Amino acid sequence: MRLNEIISIAGTAVLITACVTEAPAPYGALPTPAQVEWQKMETNMFVHFGPNTFTSAEWGDGTESADIFAPSDLDCRQWAATAKAAGMKGIIITAKHHDGFCLWPNPVSSHTVAQSSWKDGKGDVLAELSVACREYGLGFGVYISPWDRNDPHYGTPEYNDVFRVTLESALGSYGTVFEQWFDGACGEGPNGKRQVYDWQLFNSTVYKMQPDAIIFSNVGPGCRWVGNESGSAGRTCWGTLNVGDITPGTHIDCEILNTGDMNGERWVAAETDVSIRPGWFWRESENQRVKSLQELLKIYYESVGRNSLLLLNVPADKRGHMHEIDSTRLMEFRAAVDEIFAEDLAEGALAEADNVRGNSWRFSASNLLDDDYDSYWATDDDVLTPSVTISFDGVRRFNRVMLQEYIPLGQRVSGFSIDALGTDGTWQEIARETTIGYKRIVLVPDTEATAVRLRVTGSLACPVLNRLALYQDNVYVDMETANPAAEGDVKPADEPLLADLGEGREISGFAYTPIYKGRGGCIVTYDLFVSMDGERWEKVYGEKMFDNIVNNPIRQEVDFSEPVKARYLKLVPLRTSGDGTYGVSAFESR
Ligand code: FUL
Question: Which of 87, 280, 328, 427 is 20 to 30 A from residue 164's alpha carbon, by CA?
């Protein structure tokens, strides 16, 4: 006997209808269960730590002595305690940055903690951190840069195998690794050659060692780069992307990474990596430049609130601690987020939709108001633009609307509006947006309403939404001014930048702040000259690079190895980013 026959004997017609309504079929590219769990982590901590922590470089060149790595009091439990208290769900450590130095004793490298005098060569940061993460219930993840400026094999076919063993060693010795972070940078190695990476080998090695790991690269396969290092996912942000045969590290339009592709062929949700400081590594000179609470909240809204995971970098300092300025700011951030999202103001409302799938209670609008992740409101297959209204008993005041799609069935909604029913009895549109995805937090004006209506204005298949919540944020105030633009004068073209100090002075270095417009306008490489009379010039640097400036266009400070006496400085741009439309910005001497 079939199920509906049994029911028709035992029950009413209403029951029969309820039991035979099928859940919506999945639509388009889907996340794996591991990708869904990853996205539910929402905020994770990145920790940049290594030789650069001790040299103040952003990109070490691989010639640093292993002894430079000498944390005076490494305390990974302090990192984990800080991350946990900040509400983070996992920590990703730079196990090997571009300088090639390994924070664990990698058997195929001679540039690791084992070669340093730190802890007599017996130290192992990955061991300490993985244990601390387990103790605090946090996921443990690793950043391992394929670009290696130290390994002598780099730039030869043998390097791919060296890197395979590197992966096996880092991923096979420290328990579960939730995320493998592949940096796309591919520069020259010690022999001046670039490497042709064997991504097929690298990815299969990761999966062999850690079958559920999420592999990050600019194009996945687990999750994708969001296209900038400033902490902002697209206002339209699809979890799907058309990757085609693009391999990690190959250039792909940052705008597309930022927004994803509607109907993209693969599920590769965006991860927003951004540093709490201007640079990725700790340096004393940036202690006073830790991002403000307002900046962190803006980042939160533009990452977690836009269908992306936030990977917030908090670099460890020379002691091997999270610095107190950073951890204090993190606690302020968490307290603010907790306060904003403490009370769902939609609670207790009455939810009514103009269409409910099969009229079944299983898919009713009230599912939007509970916090059971797996219960959702869905419509009939042919209803793509439904609306749902939640009514209050009285007036509610709010300025944030949180929505979630049930992504195990795919991302569907491509347009929606939110209306509020004011105390004067009229409906007013308060937001008009595009995508929702795993989570969308819409910043709406301070609103007083007796009812709120969500109108889906476009959907690729019947909408499947599992949450609608309202919040009042009294902390985050100034959206537009939270991230002040970089200072600096703008020059119209890539002409030399000239500074006249008025008299001969002892100069120990200079700072350069780029102007940044769509990855254009940054000086990437330069020559630097000094002069006493403006006629005879002495070259201080030739073909020097501002490291990572295109991805992270912040003020860069360059310290001379020894002070020079000069009245004039001349910075000659050799290579600039973009198409030259924006020129370059001025620099300061120190
Ligand atoms: C970039 C690197 O080049 C930076 O140094 C940093 O590690 C950032 C997270 O990724 O591609």
Answer: 280
